TrEMBL record, chain A:
It is a multi-pass membrane protein. InterPro entries: FtsW/RodA. This is Rod shape-determining protein RodA. Coiled coil: none annotated.
Automatic annotation (TrEMBL), chain B:
The keyword Membrane applies. This is Penicillin-binding protein 2. It is an enzyme of class 3 (hydrolase). GO terms for biological process: cell wall organization; peptidoglycan biosynthetic process; proteolysis; regulation of cell shape. Its EC number is 3.4.16.4. It comes from Flavobacterium soyangense.
Length: 411, 641
């Protein structure tokens, strides 16, 4: 039984969804490239064909390999990110590619999988207890190391992805207040931009006083409540400061347009406005494959990469979009289900990471296209044009499929 | 619990996306309409722009039809370029350039190919327009000026800039918009709202009827007519008097703040900015940086006001109680206000408020100012008290009138001097030039006129404005709100009697008009220019302010003539003539009128860098217009220099 075929025990549901998504992605790239981006569909087809050997290699490698060499893979990945500062190729102001001839490789797409492996490896030690502050710091360090290297490229989109690891760590025992802090931070951030900082501070004061009185906290906790208030005020003021002084105008504009504070149909708001028009014109059933007038007209910029979902929305309509979303959600839930039934902590954590990473890409990308998230460069997994992205996501997913197939051999 | 978080997040997030999708795709159908812009043709129906009348209902600005040739570059097919160019009277080079430009804007959206053809230019082309696929015409209405004056008051109409089109969703490429003057400040009222009609097109780009039975169509709303406060006769007369001079005139009705005339010179005939020649003409005007005919001197030219400011010095002195009407200072061709410091004066003898004002005595007002600033031991405080009095006349700030340009002028306060004299004390003596309207004080002609209106009203003014009536609307409340100064009414009477004697006994006694009681004040403003790299003192700017009649003022006026010399030589006569024209409708002092009309300062201006071609052209045009219409005594334009 040792020499079973590669395909034995693998989860066909995941693979089926994967194949459907990749093919759907290619059809949409084909459609959106007809007007202006000739050749992109052919290139993407080559990328897709090249995933087949890639998948076989991933499946062929012994399941234990990934656990054994996780640290080394992580190390190499970090080195590749560091190397960008010296050898990186700058495209559109971002230094996040290696150029090999006309071919470019984006190491941050692979760093996600490497980080997931490293985190899984770290947490798989049964000695590790995330209630311990030192352990918390070490675990978070693994996540922040690549973020620190990616942020200055600058590639805030890729960096944003790493926030999902907090949820994974929470699953493995990280105290809940981390998640709460993250949630409240985002809430305060948005509120500060929407309202004047002084109102947000007043609001925070009211809420803290309310909670303090309501839950009959004593004098000792008064100090705690005060510190909390000072922290929140400090944060709100610094957000305001960062927004008005450190952010560049185009960053500010993205938020202002999203929050409805400014309207600009032809300038900065153009992308979002056009993508909303394209999607909105789809209606229930869409205009049909290759029939999208907005897609053909080339109104939506970056339509084959970050804005690929607009083609889905326009040509396949609400029902088509619903199918795509359902497929993605099905994949995520399937991976989580598989992760929970893993026998080793390593593969469970890794599976969780896979679901999380794919999910946050999915959500941020589509939310941006639908105009409920600021414009930020995050690809839609399996859909967006680009070799690095496609391969990164494929490797990420198939390593887990391999682990899952291996579980029968464990113990 | 910990296991549930991620799946829950996924479900919530996905639901959010589905709800948003449902909203975009199913509920909100405005996106659908927008996307159909390929399948739908939009036609605009441009309403006629509102007419502009003067205060007496005389029509000043009407409309004429005009035609823009529009192009959609993508749709051009089998064009007979030669015939096309001949019909439109353009060269092939022009043609190629314009097409290239349109393509840059957008190959599939319409842009203006050739703008503002008049009826006859368009007629020949119209017959054959069917042959030229990709081209169509857009009818618009253009201004038809009934008068050859008032260019600065009206402003002009021009195509909205690409920047504005991008910013303001109302305007499309090629749409017209008012610039400068009332065309700009009352753009939205004059313009109306254009109507939109949607037509369904088939795949061969043919119209096949109204889109959804006109469900989304809107009807054009006509622009409203407006009446200006301008008196056409007075405005015209003012511009004629200013021919061959540079400067500005502002006349205000004190009781209401209505602007009766707003003259800047040199100016231009508003009709030269209409039609196919407009951009050529505009460039000429725009490039003339020396005479600067597009620059409204009446609103924008800032100068130290000189002697007219003595009126305020006197009033503040009375109000602060540091002088009374009997307070006397002896002038000895000036006075020594500090060891080694002497303020010169053309005058001599004992002076009181009355004699001081009509003789324009520097000594008298220098002393009054020293008293004002010396009233408080804290000099900065005293300066602020003085500054607040002055500012209550609407000076040193944007007045809030309804014309799109303006300058604040400058009235110093303690902060100004803290910056100028950091670290060491200053006193009234340091800043004594303010007494006589020099030093740090700067004002525009309209501010001067408003100051005179305030004096005429004995202590209040209404924000000057140029709108009298908008059909179907009331004018802005701020123009009917009284602004009261910090000077008590009783102090104005002695000042006004002094100003009256400026005409009877004082510096303007040669300018009296029999039967009209005019109160006025002369002024001069020193000025310098670099000529050949050397700072040279030029002839003073001639300034004159006045109001009349003394007991029931109907007009307050300020005149500024660049390099005109002493106030009574050029600005003064213009003031007298304007006042007589407005109050009587005719001129009795024809000698004065003839002299003033013929007076040319072009030789003086020539020193500043010569007279530009544009001005010469303009002057010839005006000259010929005046001759052909022969309204007033003929004008001889000095074009020899």
């Amino acid at each position: 039984m040792k020499n079973q075929s590669l395909t034995n025990n693998i989860d066909w549901i995941c693979i089926a969804i994967y194949i459907v998504l990749v093919l759907m992605g290619w059809l949409n790239i084909y459609s959106s490239s007809l007007s202006s981006m000739e050749g992109t569909a052919d290139k993407q087809l080559i990328f897709i064909i090249l995933t087949i050997p890639l998948i076989f290699i991933v499946l062929y490698v012994e399941g234990k390999f990934y656990e054994k060499y996780a640290s080394i893979i992580f190390g190499i990945s970090l080195l590749s990110l560091v190397g960008l500062f010296a050898f990186g190729k700058t495209i559109a102001g971002q230094r996040c590619w290696y150029g090999i001839g006309s071919f470019t490789l984006q190491p941050s797409e692979f760093a996600k999988a490497a980080t997931a492996l490293a985190l899984a490896k770290y947490l798989s030690d049964s000695q590790i207890n995330l209630k311990d502050v030192n352990r918390q710091i070490q675990a978070l360090a693994i996540v922040f190391l690549p973020v620190m290297l990616i942020l200055p490229q600058p590639d805030p989109g890729s960096a944003l992805i790493y926030s999902i690891f907090i949820i994974v760590l929470y699953r493995e025992g990280l105290p809940a207040w981390y998640v709460w802090t993250g949630f409240i931070t985002i809430l305060l951030f948005v509120l500060t931009l929407l309202l004047q900082p002084q109102y947000v501070i007043l609001l925070a004061l009211a809420v803290i006083v309310f909670i303090h009185i309501k839950s009959r906290l004593g004098d000792r906790n008064l100090v705690l409540s005060s510190i909390l208030f000072v922290l929140i005020s400090g944060f709100v003021l610094s957000v305001n400061y960062v927004f008005t002084h450190i952010f560049k105008q185009h960053h500010r504009d993205r938020f202002n347009i999203l929050l409805g504070k400014s309207v600009d149909m032809k300038g900065i708001g153009y992308n979002t406005n056009q993508s909303e028009i394209a999607i909105g014109s789809g209606g229930w059933f869409g205009k049909g494959f290759l029939e999208g007038t907005q897609t053909k007209g080339g109104f939506v910029p970056e339509q084959h990469t970050d804005y690929i979902f607009t083609t889905v929305g326009e040509e396949w309509g609400f029902l088509g979009s619903l199918v795509v979303i359902a497929l993605f959600v099905g994949l995520f839930l399937r991976v989580i289900y598989l992760a929970e039934r893993q026998k080793t902590k390593f593969s469970r954590v890794y599976g969780y990471c896979v679901a999380g990473i794919l999910f946050i890409h999915f959500f941020v990308n589509i939310a941006m296209v639908l105009g409920i998230f600021p414009t930020i460069g995050v690809p839609l997994p399996f859909f967006s044009y680009g070799g690095s992205g496609l391969w990164g996501f494929t490797i990420l997913l198939f390593i887990f499929i391999k682990m899952d197939a291996n579980k029968v051999n464990e113990w | 619990m910990r296991k549930v978080l991620l799946p829950t997040l996924i479900i919530i997030a996905a639901s959010l996306l589905v709800i948003r999708l449902f909203y975009l795709q199913i509920i909100d159908d405005s996106f659908k309409l927008k996307s159909d812009n390929n399948a739908i043709k939009i036609k605009y129906d441009y309403p006629e722009r509102g007419y502009i009348y003067d205060r007496n209902g005389k029509l000043l600005v009407a409309n004429q039809p005009s035609y823009d040739i529009m192009v959609i570059p993508r749709d051009i097919k089998d064009l007979d370029t030669l015939e096309f160019c001949q019909l439109l009277d353009i060269t092939k080079d022009d043609f190629l350039k314009k097409i290239a430009k349109a393509k840059v804007y957008s190959p599939r959206l319409p842009s203006v190919f050739l703008a503002q053809l008049n009826k006859s230019e368009f007629a020949a082309f119209q017959e054959k327009i069917r042959k030229f696929e990709g081209f169509y015409f857009q009818k618009r209405s253009l201004r038809d000026y009934q008068v050859n004056f008032g260019a600065n008051v009206f402003g002009f109409i021009t195509q909205a800039s690409e920047k504005l089109v991008a910013k303001n969703p109302y305007y499309n490429s090629g749409d017209l918009i008012g610039k400068q003057g009332v065309e700009e400040s009352y753009e939205e009222i004059l313009r109306g709202i254009k109507g939109v009609k949607y037509f369904q097109k088939d795949k061969y780009n043919r119209e096949i009827g109204s889109f959804k039975e006109g469900k989304y169509d809107t009807i054009a709303v006509q622009g409203e007519d407006i009446n200006l406060t301008i008196d056409a006769e007075l405005q015209k007369y003012g511009e004629e008097l200013m021919i061959n001079k540079r400067g500005g005139i502002v006349a205000i009705e004190p009781k209401t703040g209505e602007i009766l005339a707003l003259v800047t010179a040199p100016s231009y005939d508003p009709s030269i900015l209409v039609g196919r020649q407009r951009s050529k003409n505009y460039t000429l005007l725009y490039r003339d940086s020396i005479a600067n005919p597009l620059y409204d001197r009446a609103l924008l030219a800032e100068y130290p006001p000189g002697s007219p400011f003595k009126i305020l010095t006197g009033l503040i002195g009375l109000q602060e109680g540091v002088i009374n009407e009997q307070t006397t200072y002896v002038c000895n061709h000036g006075f020594s206000y500090a060891p080694g410091r002497f303020m010169k004066c053309h005058d001599s003898g004992p002076r009181q408020l009355h004699t001081g004002i009509y003789n324009s005595c520097n000594t008298y007002f220098g002393n009054v100012y020293l008293r004002i600033i010396g009233k408080y031991s804290n000099t900065p405080y005293a300066v602020d008290v003085w500054s607040d009095h002055v500012k209550s006349f609407g000076l040193g700030q944007f007045m809030g009138y309804d014309l799109p340009t303006g300058k604040k002028g400058k009235i110093p306060n303690s902060k100004t001097y803290k910056k100028m004299y950091p670290g060491w004390g200053y006193s009234g003596k340091t800043i004594i030039s303010n007494a006589i309207g020099q030093g740090e004080i700067v004002m525009t002609p309209i501010q001067l006129a408003n100051m005179m209106a305030t004096v005429a009203n004995q202590g209040y003014y209404y924000t000057p404005h140029i709108i009298k009536k908008i059909k179907g609307e009331t004018i802005d409340k701020k123009f009917t709100t009284k602004h009261v100064t910090t000077i008590d009414k009783k102090y104005f009477a002695p000042m006004i009697s002094g100003l009256f004697d400026v005409y009877n006994l004082g510096t303007a006694s040669a300018l009296r008009v029999e039967g009209i009681d005019i109160c006025g004040k002369t002024g001069t403003a020193e000025n310098y220019a670099k000529i050949g790299g050397v700072r040279t003192k030029l002839e003073d700017h001639s300034i004159f302010v006045a109001f009349a009649p003394k007991d029931n003022p109907k007009i307050a006026i300020a005149i500024m003539v660049e390099n005109g010399g002493f106030g009574a030589t050029i600005a003064g006569p213009i003031a007298s003539l304007m006042i007589e024209k407005y109050l009587r409708g005719k001129i009795t002092r024809t000698d004065l009128e003839k002299r003033t009309l013929e007076r040319s300062l072009q030789d003086r201006y020539a020193k500043l860098g010569g007279q530009s071609e544009a001005v010469k052209l303009e002057m010839r045009m005006r000259d010929s217009i005046l001759k052909s219409k022969t309204i007033v005594p003929k004008i001889k334009t000095d074009t020899t220099k």
